[in-house]
Amino acid sequence: MAGLHVRSLLVTGANRGIGLGLVQHFLRMPKPPQWIFAGCRDPKGQRAQELQNLASKHPNIIIIPLEVANPASIKAAAAKVGEHLGGSGLNLLINNAGMVKSNTLDTETLEDMSEVYTTNTIGPLLMGQAFLPLLKKAAQGSPGSGLSCSKAAIINMSSYAGSIEDMYVWEFGQVVSYRCSKAALNMLSKCQSLAYKEHGILCVALHPGWVQTDMGGGGSFKPPLTVDDSVQGMLKVLSSISEKETGAFLDWEGKVIPW
Length: 259
Known about the structure:
A 7-stranded parallel β-sheet has the order 3-2-1-4-5-6-7, with helices on both faces. It has 6 helices and 7 strands, in the order βαβαβαβαβαβαβ. Strand 1, helix 1 (17-27) and strand 2 (35-40) form a beta-alpha-beta unit. Helix 1 packs across helix 6 (227-240) and helix 3 runs parallel beside helix 4. The chain is α/β, with parallel strands linked by helices. The longest helix is centred in the middle third of the chain and has 31 residues, at 110-140. The protein is globular, with a radius of gyration of 17 Å.
């Protein structure tokens, strides 16, 4: 992790699973970020207890109430983060919050498709828009002309299930709305990489692996990866990527995934 020096970051869906794992691993860095903004839908709820415990021990964790399906919540979160940062920018935005509905093609509904798409695709779009001024500020304040996660970056947590070319684990579940939302998120990541490059902001879609979380671990099959393995791998990837990778779709080991 020698190459990753982040002064401030925001992780959505930070109260459990991969989001919480990211917060924990950033804390363990030799030089932890000055600010870790942990976005979470219900900060006072039972599901955020572990995050609350962490925040009580580490004053650099700021829990931000954030519902990525709600534009007003996103705007309020951006204002709050901006206040904490004072005049400095946000180095890293990790759009990790996501949801899945385990429908087949036959049982997919308008309501489920809309809900999944709103959280998994529209949420990261609106987050990018709302936090763009803070990301631009971080990029302007960093020396050098290249792109990096230490400077300014948007990381969209995607999934191999969004690959059209390689229908990953289709036999384990069709999860049609989830696949469609992640394929669209990959396109959003590409669009962001082209639009935000001139501002010095790196954008990638990242597949964390099939991880043992509440969301990934349904059914009788146990996913192959622990949260720790996944997060360690992803942080290694984030420490090494540069403008060559902006717009790419990578996995937790840095391999390029087929579109």
